[in-house]
Amino acid sequence: MNLFGLYVPGTTWLHRLGSGWKYLLLLVLTVPALALGRPGPSLAALLATIAVLTSAQLGWRRALALPPALWVLLVVLSGYQLAVGQPDLAVVVSVNLVTAVYASRLLTMTTPGPVLIDALVVGLRPFRIVGVDPERVGLAVAIMVRSVPLLLDTFEQVRQAARARGRERNLLALITPVVVRAVGQAQATGAALAARGLGEPGGS
After folding, report:
1. Burial state string for 135-155 with b = 16 or more CB within 10 A and e = fewer than 16
2. In a shared domain, residues 88 and 23
3. What's the CA gap between 121 and 125, in Å, rounded?
4. Looking at residue 188, what is its pLDDT?
5. Do 101 and 133 have their domain in common?
6. What pTM was computed for the model?
7. Number of domain units in the chain
8. Backbone angles phi, psi at 173, to 5 degrees
9. Domain range holding 170?
10. On the chain, which terminus has fewer CB atoms closer than 10 Å, C or N?
11. Residue 52: band (very low, low, confident or very high) from pLDDT cuts 50, 70, 90
12. Both 61 and 145 in a single domain?
């Protein structure tokens, strides 16, 4: 299961909405709740995001299903906050994370990936005056979008292997292989970019 969802062609208002407006919608749905940091606004943002997402007629399961690895992460994050006596923060952190995932699907499931990256690059061009390189940002985002599902898949594979050995409750046994694989993937990606002259100042 892909965390951010794959593009699904359609003719709904959300499919027809311009990429720039979709990015703005994502910010409206996520940033205020993050800034306020309270359960009420976070839950309201989640409900609003679900309403908008379902209006794209993507199918309930396709639009709202979450991968098992994310559920594990939510349990770990919430459990930690509860353990330190911060139940409100447990709600805020977990709900805001789910909202961010659903809000990202507003973009990725209704707009082709290359179109999103191109729109981001265009939107960042005015910031060249403060040293922002839009092409490098676009490259970084493209790599991130590709890497996150791979990391989640790795986490799920490691979790299943640990369960088969009866070590699914050992956090070290779960986290260490994922970190090792993530570092290996990052090094391989960096080497591939360097071989093509990308990702470095002056590179194309």
Report:
1. ebbbbeeeeebeeebebbebb
2. yes
3. 6
4. 65
5. no
6. 0.65
7. 2
8. -70, -25
9. 117-204
10. C
11. very high
12. no
What count of residues does the chain have?
Answer: 204
Indicate if 106 and 121 belong to the same structural domain: no
Q: Please report, rounded to a whole number, the percentage of residues in the chain having pLDDT higher than 70.
A: 73
Q: Is the pLDDT of residue 204 over 50?
A: no
Calculate mean pLDDT across residues 63-88: 86
Specify whether 73 is located in the same domain as 133: no
Dihedral angle computed from the Cα positions of residues 29, 32, 37 and 39, in that order, rounded to the nearest 10 degrees: -50
* 114 half-sphere exposure, CB direction, 13 A CA radius: 0
What share of residues in the chain are helix, strand, coil (percent, to 5)?
75, 0, 25
- Judge if 99 and 136 occupy the same domain: no
pLDDT tier, 19 (very low <50, low <70, confident <90, very high otherwise): confident
What is the model's pLDDT at position 123?
Answer: 77
User: In this structure, are 41 and 104 located in the same domain?
Assistant: yes
